[in-house]
TrEMBL record, chain A:
InterPro entries per the UniProt record, alphabetical: Cys_rich_dom, HdrC_iron-sulfur_subunit
Keyword Oxidoreductase set for record: yes
Keywords recorded for this protein, A-Z: 4Fe-4S, Iron, Iron-sulfur, Metal-binding, Oxidoreductase
Pfam families xref list: CCG
Domain Cysteine-rich: 33-107, 148-235
Keyword Phosphoprotein found: no
MF-aspect GO terms: 4 iron, 4 sulfur cluster binding; metal ion binding; oxidoreductase activity
Residues in coiled coil: none
Domain of life: Bacteria
Organism: Flagellimonas chongwuensis
A GO term from the CC aspect: plasma membrane
Protein name listed in UniProt: (Fe-S)-binding protein
From TrEMBL, chain B:
Full protein name: 4Fe-4S dicluster domain-containing protein
Domain 4Fe-4S ferredoxin-type, chain residue ranges per copy: 301-332, 366-398
Superkingdom, natural source: Bacteria
GO cellular component, one term: plasma membrane
Keyword terms of this UniProt record: 4Fe-4S, Iron, Iron-sulfur, Membrane, Metal-binding, Oxidoreductase, Transmembrane, Transmembrane helix
Source organism of this protein record: Flagellimonas chongwuensis
Length: 263, 441
């Protein structure tokens, strides 16, 4: 364990009678998945650096229900959503930031008609805002000469048209951004969406993540960056399938930024 | 007997349009079998989408070769309809080239129709080569075997023949005009068909008239026949692309609808004041609504309109990650199956005085298998690829809902994932009390 992260829960804010600037929705992957936890930590390091007064729900947070909904279990989804909305509305949450495009999508688009209206941002959008407002500065040439290709998560890019924020952040590190043949609106899925993350794929002649990683490797990158914990897992497995784990790393955009600042 | 041709023409026209109207009625009835859905919002955005996507063909040209060729055939189709109007009026009134008093405007029109006709012929040949010689992947997928393949080629043959007839008619007309034949006054410009005149050089005036009349009649009867072919063909898209793009999804692609029937039940469950043993209120005593879709009647009417609009171009399937990696799922097949099942239901209704009588079949299993449905990553690539705003994903999700909520038939791993969420609020079996451990690891 490195230095202590400053993370406060909503309960603590309540006890102090204060409201945070934002609520960081960590998500189930960001809380429990070993790889994704590192992304949560990297994002918090950046929030700490920018002195953002943020809160998490901690043990009160529960699955958004997104994956249940994609699997067809509308019942479970709405149960989760209503419970979360009750909690969020109780805390009078206005602004939510998350590192998971699936949480981002469902909180932003599917919660409102169930009574949950929040200003929801993906962490790349929020980090860009911090930089634009001068609260976070990215300096140094640590990534100069590195080739980074960005894999658009479906639920961030195609589903919600967020294409530029992650790319702008990556170029702040002075890295060279290289695009895959299929990117932005026509990006190929990593294979995890629609609850595929939690099951074996149907019979076929290849796994989707292997195909997507092939496209990424064609750009000859040092780093494959993405903005989704599930894409991260799929791409990491993909480069292993291509036996490229020694020369290519898969990182979240927040990790690239945090690393570039030696955080 | 002087008016015999006019009468025959009028009869053919009425029969052609009448039969077409009958099919349109059947089509509307079938689409209305779908559930109601409110699409009355954002009218101006909807009109814009229709203008941009259907009229403006903006999503077609994403693939430049097929796109540009398609635009040619499409513009040809629209513009040449002006000529069809003249032909119909000539046919009814017994006139010849009724619009010719327009003078130089008329010459320009006829000239441009000819150029378009030639371009259409070229495009149609290119399309045929792509389907049959180059055999582009998306045209030879399993769901394209049999009728869909024949249908695709048939349309190309019909268009080719219609254009050839149009040019032949003009060439003979031009030659007759040169010879000063009675009834064939000088009118029109013939930049393309003039090159066909040498083929007719040795023909007498009466033979030329025979050629001209034959081509004229076959051309217009061909068009009426083609109009009636539409209903039995993927070619229906030339009409339905317009309403379909109008009713297309306006929300972010990632936003799935929240089932209202579920919301009602969940609210009741979460209401601390609700009496769990209460008898259902009188108005709620009706049969509880079915969750999700196992047959076409469970889908909404926009989804059914989507199915009839699909022209089987396969752009969706060629972009689908599951299909690209050899899984059975093909978004195009989802649409074709939905349409074929809907047609089947329609036929059953026709045979039973408009009442649907169960035939023991349904969309699920008899057409679309769970294996296809579970292969979807919900990535929206198919939705993005469709040039006419069809949403295959919404049908897949609706059918998954049926599998999970009505049949509890999800794959085991997914059932595990869902019980984890129910028990500990995460898709993995971790304790909710450990949610913040990442901070100190």
């Amino acid at each position: 364990m490195s230095e202590q992260l400053k993370v406060k829960t909503m309960q603590e804010f309540m006890a102090e009678g204060k409201q945070p600037e934002i609520l960081f929705w960590v998500g189930s992957a960001g809380s429990f998945d070993d790889r994704a936890k590192k992304i949560s930590r990297a994002f918090v390091k950046l929030l700490n650096k920018a002195n953002v007064d943020f809160a998490v729900l901690g043990t009160e947070e529960s699955s958004t229900g997104d994956v249940a909904k994609r699997a067809g279990n509308e019942f479970l989804f709405q149960m989760q959503a209503m419970m979360n909305i009750e909690l969020l509305n109780g805390y009078e949450i206005k602004r939510i930031v998350t590192c998971d495009p699936h949480s981002f999508n469902t909180l932003k688009n599917e919660y409102p008609s169930l009574g949950g209206n929040y200003d929801v941002l993906h962490h790349t959008q929020y980090l860009k805002e911090l930089i634009d407002n001068g609260r976070l500065t990215i300096t140094g040439d640590g990534y100069k000469g590195k080739r980074i290709t960005f894999h658009d998560p479906c639920y961030l890019g195609r589903a919600n048209s967020v294409f530029d924020a992650p790319r702008e952040l990556l170029t702040k590190t002075n890295a060279e951004l290289v695009e895959m043949k299929r990117h932005k609106k026509t990006a190929l899925c990593c294979g995890a969406g629609g609850a595929q993350m939690f099951k074996e794929p149907e019979k076929g002649d290849m796994d989707v993540n292997v195909l997507r990683t092939k496209g990424a490797l064609e750009t000859n990158p040092n780093i494959i960056a993405t903005g989704c914990p599930y894409c991260n897992t799929m791409m990491t497995d993909g480069i292993k399938a291509h036996e490229k784990e020694d020369s290519v790393t898969v990182l979240d955009v927040a990790e690239v930024l945090a690393n570039s600042q030696g955080l | 007997m002087e008016y015999l041709p006019n009468i025959i023409f009028a009869v053919a026209l009425i029969a052609g349009i009448g039969f077409f109207t009958r099919n349109v009625k059947k089509l509307t009835r079938n689409i209305k079998l779908g559930k109601d859905v409110d699409v009355s919002d954002n009218k101006s955005q909807r009109w814009k989408n229709m203008a941009r996507i259907a009229l403006g063909q903006t999503k077609m040209v994403v693939r430049p070769v097929a796109g540009i060729m398609h635009v040619i055939v499409y513009v040809g189709f629209i513009i040449i309809n002006i000529e069809v109007l003249e032909i119909i009026l000539d046919g009814l009134l017994g006139t010849h080239r009724l619009f010719s008093p327009l003078g130089s405007v008329y010459d320009f029109l006829i000239g441009s129709f000819e150029v378009l006709a030639l371009l259409v012929i070229v495009a149609v040949i290119v399309f045929w080569i792509r389907r049959n010689i180059i055999r582009i992947q998306r045209f030879i997928k399993p769901e394209m075997k049999g009728w869909p393949k024949t249908d695709g080629n048939m349309i190309l043959y019909i268009e080719f023949v219609l254009m050839i007839l149009f040019l032949t008619m003009n060439a003979a007309d031009f030659q007759l005009q040169q010879l000063g034949a009675e009834h064939y006054h000088e009118a029109g410009a013939f930049p393309i068909s003039q090159f066909m005149v040498p083929l007719l050089d040795n023909l007498s005036e009466s033979s030329l008239i025979l050629v001209e009349r034959t081509a004229w009649w076959l051309h217009i009867l061909g068009i009426l026949a083609f109009l009636n072919y539409l209903y039995y063909s993927k070619h229906l898209h030339i009409l339905l692309a317009f309403p379909n793009t109008y009713y297309g999804k306006l929300k972010p692609q990632g936003q799935f609808n929240n089932l209202e029937s579920v919301t009602k039940e969940v609210k009741l469950m979460m209401d601390p004041d609700a009496d769990p043993y209460a008898a259902p209120a009188e108005e709620d005593a009706a049969e509880p609504e079915k969750f999700g879709a196992s047959d076409v009647m469970d889908l909404n009417w926009v989804q059914l309109l989507n199915a009839y609009t699909c022209t089987e171009c396969g752009r969706c399937t060629s972009e689908c990650p599951a299909n690209q990696t050899g899984k059975k799922l093909s978004p195009r097949k989802i649409m074709m199956d939905t349409r074929d099942r809907l047609e089947e239901v329609g036929k059953i209704m026709d045979a039973n005085n408009g009442e649907f009588v169960s035939d023991g079949k349904q969309l699920l299993n008899d057409y679309i298998t769970p294996e296809e449905l579970w292969a979807c990553t919900t990535c929206n690539a198919c939705v993005q690829a469709c040039p006419v705003s069809i949403d295959p994903l919404s049908i897949i999700v609706e059918m998954r809902r049926y599998l999970v909520m009505e049949q509890s038939a999800a794959p085991t791993e997914l059932n595990n994932m869902m019980s984890n969420i129910e028990n500990n609020g995460a898709p993995w079996p971790y304790n909710q009390m450990d949610r913040l451990n990442w901070v100190n690891e």
